[in-house]
Amino acid sequence: MPRGLFAFLLGFLFWVPGLRADIYRYVAPDGRIYFTNVPMGPGWKLYLRTPRKRTAVDLDYLFEEAAREVGLDPALLKAVARVESGFNPRAVSFRGALGIMQLLPETARLTGVRDPFNPRQNIFGAARFLKQLLDRFGDLRLALAAYHAGPERVERYHGIPPFPETRRYIRMVLRYYRYYRLNFRP
Question: Is 155 one of the catalytic residues?
Fold first, then answer.
């Protein structure tokens, strides 16, 4: 196989979303080199392991554990994660929010999160924070507004702040929350 074609195919494997294929290599006795995604017998060695993208399903057990620990619905945590980062554990917002649940560094510190890019720490810290907001405001919509715009703004406006992005955020989280309540499979 020409090197250019091999490089193209290898690049294609990394580009196609959700596609995962490890590459195995075999050097024949005559020196020819073969590649495949399925080892054909003895002598085939793993040459390249393609990374596996984390999905929401992979994180369900973390949403379930964190929700159980603080007394929340795991579908709510999953909905917040979906809207905040699309389940990306390496997400960084333009405001500096980090990880799957988009914790600001100060919020991460206050909730005991040392590594906001660690999915477990991030989800558990966000669950604790969201539970505090629910206890503080007594209403899911207000708690979500506080999660998005900050508790001080909810208090200042005596309700949901008049920011279109916060109102849109609440609608989106509630939409995903309804969906995940019907379809959550821990």
Answer: no
